[in-house]
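*** Query protein ***
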Amino acid sequence: MNAPLPAGCEPTCHGCQHRALDAAASAAQKESYLRRALAPWAERLAPLAVPAQRLGYRERVSLNAEHQGGRWRFGLVRHRERRDEFIAIPDCPVHAPRVNAALAALATALPPPAALPLGFVVARGAQLTLVVKARELAAGLAAALGATLAAPLAAAGYEALWLHLHASTGRRLFTRSGWRLLWGAPRSRDADGDAYGPTAFAQNHPALHGAALARALEHLAPGPERALVDLYCGVGKLARRARARGAPVVAVELSGEAVACAADNAPGATVLRGTCAQRLPQLAAWCASAPPTPVLYCNPPRSGLEPAVAAWIAGALHPVRGAYLSCSAGSLARDLVLLEAGGLRVEALLPYDLFPQTQHVEVLALLARAPASSATLG
């Protein structure tokens, strides 16, 4: 069923594909898509878990910047008819209030492009970053930005402002060097107390994501005799929960910032930096000395498990239970076929509407060792 566009919604914006649908119609489309994409396991697909808040929830945004009419505008770029069309979204109803408040402050407080060639503004929770297309700024400008913006950003609810100098920013938003903290603390803590920084990945609906983590933890039941292998671990949110149960934990993450946060959030866990495929030798060595009934949690990017990683899980790790949180039903279906061939069985598929107003949906797959090889399943 069609619904009126939310107040403040820019009609030409293409960011929220389901914004003209009411909650029931959006959920119905997502569930229909999942039944098709995950057809071999459709009878194990649960109803979509939806959040109460469908607007004003988005704390994680990356917006293009454009200077026009003496002020900065922030929004999206649509590629059409061989040109880029900039679409300003100053009061996006999906953005959290503090995001829109920060954008309003930046619009008039930041200097023009001749002094500050701004490319993007990036919000990650309470951490805000200005991504600038330059290798250096004029002397004193960085300090002036921090002094000018500290009060309005603090009033909006932010805890840090970063400057990221990245002359070739674009398809690759960040690079390793060129980071300066202009104001505030280099780390913030979310509602669970987990540390994160300006580039850390975080789900947009923390409460709903927490429900998915709780369900995964319940299924996996890690403990002193059941070690957790946590692949694509982010800032270590599940690793922390497993460590609190006394479980040995090994975790892998590519981002250096996320690795540092995971080590902070999950004391005692072994946290490896790199791609999961790169760290297979270290994972194998760690598992050789761990309890013999490991459990697996993974939350890979949209591309899914790296082929070598899927082969290792199915052919060498043999987890007694698994939980796989996916943002792509297509890559999830591909990987589930491989994992089932390695002796795991899909017990349930639990979808979560972590991106209301959009076409995106996440699914938590709960797996267990197939009955023929389940002697150690507790």
